[in-house]
Every structure is written in C-alpha cells, then in structure tokens.
Amino acid sequence: MSIKNKLIESALVNKATNKLYQSKPIIYVTLGMIGSVASAYLAWKAGKETKETIEEVKNDISEARETAKDREKLEEAGKKGWVLLCEAYANGGLKICKVIGPAVGLEIVSLGLIGKGVGIISDRLSNAIETCGLYASTLAGYRDRVRDKVGDDEERKLYYGITEREYEEVETNKNGEPKLDREGKPKIRRTKQEVLSEELAKHSMYAQIFDAEHTEEFEYDPKTLKENYIYNNKFVRDWETYFNRQIRYSYRHTYALNDILKELGFKRTAAGQIMGYHAEIDPETREMRFVAVDPHTGEKRYLDEGIRIELFPVMYEEYNENTCKYELRKCYIMDFNVQTNILSFYD
To answer: Does the predicted model carry a pTM greater than 0.85?
Structure first.
C-alpha cells in the first residue's frame, strides 16, 4: 500500500481533514481580518512617505511644464510637450502606486477572504434549511401514515411519549396507608406532569405549557403561587395584536414560530424554525392577507384569519410542603394556529 493510500485511510488524517473542512469559513474570515489590520498598519506607515512622493511628483510635473514651454529644452529633450507631460503624470502615478499599492492590494485580498468565508457559511445555511424542510415533510408524512393506522389519539400518545400510569401516585391517609375507592382499589392521584402531558396531547404539536416553570413572562404571586389572571391574558392578547401588525412591516412579511416563542419567553423548537406565518398582497382584493401553501402541490391559499394564540386553562393538584396538603393549581396550554411551511418564502 502506498503512502498516499495509508494517509487517506488514517483515522487521524480523516479527523484533521473533517476539522479543517468545518473550520474553513472561520479560517477565511480570520485571515481576512488579520489582513485588514495589516493593511491599515501599512497605510499608516506609508502616510509620511506618501506626502514626500506627492511633493516629488508635483516637482516633476512642474519641470515638464516648464520644459514644454521652452523651445530650446524641447529640442534638447527631443520630444513634444504633451509627451513630456504624459510621461510626468504616468511616472507620478507609478510612484504613488508603489507607496500605497501594498496596503490597497492587501486590503482587497483581505476583503476577498472575508467574502469567501461568508459565502461558504451562506451555502451551508442554505443546505441546512433544505435538509430541515425535507425532515419536516418526512416527519409530517410519517405522522399521517401512523395516524391512519392507529388513530389520532394513539398517534398523539406515541408522538409525545405518553405512557399510562407513568406518573401516577397512590393517595395515602394520615397514617401513610393507601386510600381505597368503592371497588377496594387504591386511589390514584395524577401529578402535574401527567395532567399536562395528557392536555398537550389534545392540542397541536406546537402547543406550549404557559406557567412560571416554562416562561419568565408568566405573572404570579411567589408567596401564594396565585396567578395574575388579568395580566397574563392581557399579555398574550397584546402580543397577538403586535405580531399581526408587525408582520406587515417585517422583512419578507414572514414570521417563524420560533420568533414568536422567543418573544413569549419559551425555548426554540426544531419545528418552530420551519413552520410559521406569511402574509402578502392578495391580487384580487389588493389587501395584505395571510397565506398557506399546500406542501404537495405548492398552491397558495389565502386565509381569513391571522396569527392567533389561544390559552386553555388546566387544573392540577400540587403538594404544598408548608401545609402538607395537596392544593388545586391552574396553568395554561398555549396553542398557535401555525399556518404554513415558511422555507419556500426564503431565497
């Protein structure tokens, strides 16, 4: 086996090659930034010399003009006046270029390296967006096939990983003995996690739990743990109004679901980067309307409603260590009427 083949099959060489490929845009941009700093230094260093060169060029041009006016000097030079002037200007330009040329040339190369790095990042981002779109369409098709096979309820349980009695807790009395129902079976108390899992399964895959644990925007009294109902509802309604107005002035008139989740204090999701909302001018009514695109045919369909955020109250029991009792609490399931895949609206 040749040395070349050994190097190709070497794990260390492959690892270094992959690392170099991943870091290529960073390398280009870093070299460009270093070159820009170096070109600035060269320009500063050439500043004094440039002044002297300009004075020298002015003197040469003045001599050429005087020579052009004097017939005897012209005869000695053996050239015409305009030729002497052209030579003076050309030589002066070359002298100035020799002084500032290295700084300008290095700056051009540096900008080219930065542009090359940005271009690589842009290409990789486009490929990533296409991959995400393919993944989203594949997942949606798979969910449809599973839903047709096992039914909507079972498909939601499989998708969200809900297992029956996974979080159940047996109720006990003061002596620590399990409480029994009429049939003599232990009473089961459902915990918050189980209740919320079941409630999430009733809504879309974009639904979020709106409470103090999942977003800092949820307003409540930390002492009594009672929510500020008026504030929370007004908070959601105000943001809903803001999103519906802002999309008309936003770039491309497009909102990813992740943009909305970020403003509301939630974590970003994979689906939220692909799905969202888009508005454009309806050619018939000449009004700004929201659009949904058929993922199979690519046909556009204009919608009558915009961004809508709905709150669904959920009641659950939570153990209070201070009172040593289970107390009834309330939180919300926040759901969004996500309308379309937004990847097709980006270049």
So the answer is: no
